[in-house]
Amino acid sequence: MAEVEEQERQQSGEFTDESEEEDSEEEPKLKYERLSNGVSEILQSDAASCMTVHDKFLALGTHFGKVFLLDIQGNATQKYDVSSVKINQISLDESGENVGICSEDGKVQVFGLYTREGFHESFDCPVKVVALHPQFSRSNYKQFVTGGNKLLLYEKNWLNRWKTQVLHEGEGTITNVKWRANLIAWANNLGVKIYDFSTKQRITNVLRDNVSLRPDMYPCSLCWKDDTTLIIGWGTSIKICVVKERKPTEMRDLPSRYVEIVSAFETEFFICGLAPLADQLVTLFFVQDPTNQMDEEDRARPRLDIIQALPESCEEISSDALSVRFYQDNECRDYRLEHSEGESLFYIISPKDIVVAKERDQDDHIDWLLAKKKYEEALMAAEISFKNIKRHDVQRIGMAYINHLVENRDFNAAARKCQKVLGKNMELWENEVYRFKNIGQLKAISQYLPRGDLRLRPAIYEMILHDFLKTDYEGFATLIREWPGELYNNMAIVQAVNDHLKKDPTNNTLLTTLAELYTYDQRYDRALEIYLRLRHKDVYQLIHRHNLFSSIEDKIVLLMEFDKEKAVDMLLDNEDKISIDKVVVELDGRPELLHVYLHKLFKRDHHKGQKYHERQIGLYAEYDRPNLLPFLRDSTHCPLEKALEICQQRNFVEETVFLLSRMGNCRRALQMIMEEQEDVDKAIEFAKEQDDAELWEDLISYSIDKPPFITGLLNNIGTHVDPILLIKRIKEGMEIPNLRDSLVKILHDYNLQILLREGCKKILVADSLSLLKKMHRTQMRGVRVDEGNICESCHSTILPSDMAQPFSVVVFHCRHMFHKECLPSSGTIPGLQFCNICSAKRRGPGSGILEMKK
């Protein structure tokens, strides 16, 4: 809860003008400051009674009958001696050029601030209210309302004389009036009335709830939120009224407008003033505790609350207790709340003090966050609103956040924020690095140092590397990998690593890092030597990136032993740099590695290594028999006799069968299948592949005395050999397993073949008939003959120029046309003629004829 604190220095009543916030986790919504300068001097000898606010200036009325015009800072710019007693109300029009003033002695003055011409009248009773028409300066009628016991409307007639109209009387003193657009709202002892100036009708009467309160001690507060929404505060009750248009069907004798109370609720304390804030309400309360449970100091201090109005209740958003000067002597009627519609400024007026409340801006928000040590939120708010903040700087907030993190020993978070906060300020970066060094936390900041276009001095990076080298080899290696080599003196770091290797020569981390340093320094041969020694995975990347193929010609075996797949891929991808012959020579003593290389070479291209195919036969037989048969199938450069010899020596039946069949010795191959493998299915498949009647005969002859083989033949031979040939050769009385099922299968297959043939025949006949009908329809169509057609024999126009003469034209179905006299005789078949052109080319349909005569 925010307070405008005052400290009494002397008994004479001097106070300080400072505002502080209570220690609260909830951020206040408003900030406060006293309106000082000229106001302080005025209130030392006088007391404020009322005030009105314009966007450009303020108008302050006092108990001694004076009216002061003030600027926004509180400096008095003009003074009017209106009366010798209390000023009750001041009203300004929208332009701020005209003012209306009323006082306790019955004086009413309405005049232009720059002309002093206008209305000056004294009544025989105190006048409590005055309100100018919002467009007073533009209107020719110069309307305003004023009154004490009755409400009077003044306006000029066409003779420029003031005309008076009584709007209301008989319900006690008029205590407040507000004019907005065409609506006038006023309060008397019984309630609040609203008058529609456009229709000259009173449209509502909102009764006072608590009639036990004295109207002069607890006056009514009125505030127009907009042109149709009136907020009424009286005692502890608040009502929000909306003026609405009545439907034409509901008019009858009623006013065209009516008022709907959209919200009504009770508050805890007495209302001194109201003002809108977006969709919320700012309320000034006079705090009085009848139970005497509150502290004496808190009891009399006014409160400024922001509340959210609900239909039958309200929700408190914020609440601030205000310590205004001499608040102990004030009562509810001594306080006023005025607001500026152009800005969110709220003026709390008391007899001896005026306090300005305003919405907190982004700078205030950041101040509060910093005071609560919420640095991260403050930094985020500054970054989002960096264009709008005036008193704060993003970098200074960031530095405060870093200092806070360091004080709390959260070094990693502090280092991470450095990257965001310090940005391109190299001086700040170096200062932070040295600070982290002094507290022994260089490791924390190392990963966030600049390493792009903007860089620190090389000495900074070297200092961090030396620190890691002393304490953390893995961290040192990480930095070497991540940092570009240009950040530091490479030779100095190489020397430092070599010094450490003298103490620990087998340390893999240091050796790997040294190889990387050699790479940065373009000493690739030394880096390659270390990588090969360590069998490091990056050796292949190093060779590729820096084209070190000439350096690995004598290290092929080492590369193959480390990773055969990567080594072979690299060698094959770079045949132009390391030839196949060179690789074969290097791997000559390691046949298992040579086989891997030649196998991948063959997979890529069957012809490149053709001169090594003979050698590959033995390598496949020794190290990779599953790929021997595919190799023999795909290779066209393999010597078959050599391959057959090796396969027979090693008793590779499947490969031998393939070689024999490829060499043309199919009968021997079939024999091996039957005798060595005893696999009738393979034998049948082999015979199908060769599609040789003699092989089938040999297969049947070999199988005729072996019942299982006969069963296999009966099940598979049907589509290649007539099963009758096999069945006739079966010896009578031989027991054949599953003979019945085999015979049924043969019959089923035969029936299936018959059905397929019949189906194909039906389809063929149907298609032929369909095409014949289509051809017939086509040939029966008429053919257009006109002057553009010519005789295919004499090449003259087919139709005569004189259509009256008789003529005869022959049109064939092929669309060729002739004069009848140009055609040769019909030949052997009388009456049948053929198109000369189509007959000569042996194509149809040139045999049909259409004859046209005239």
TrEMBL record:
Annotated GO MF terms: zinc ion binding
Positions of region (Disordered): 1-31
CHCR repeat extents: 568-712
Chain ranges passing through the membrane: none
Domain RING-type: 791-839
Biased composition range(s): Acidic residues: 15-26
Xref: InterPro entries: Beta-prop_Vps41, Clathrin_H-chain/VPS_repeat, TPR-like_helical_dom_sf, Vps41, Vps41/Vps8, WD40/YVTN_repeat-like_dom_sf, WD40_repeat_dom_sf, Znf_RING
Membrane-topology descriptor: Peripheral membrane protein
Family: Belongs to the VPS41 family.
Protein name: Vacuolar protein sorting-associated protein 41 homolog
Organism, as annotated: Poecilia latipinna (sailfin molly)
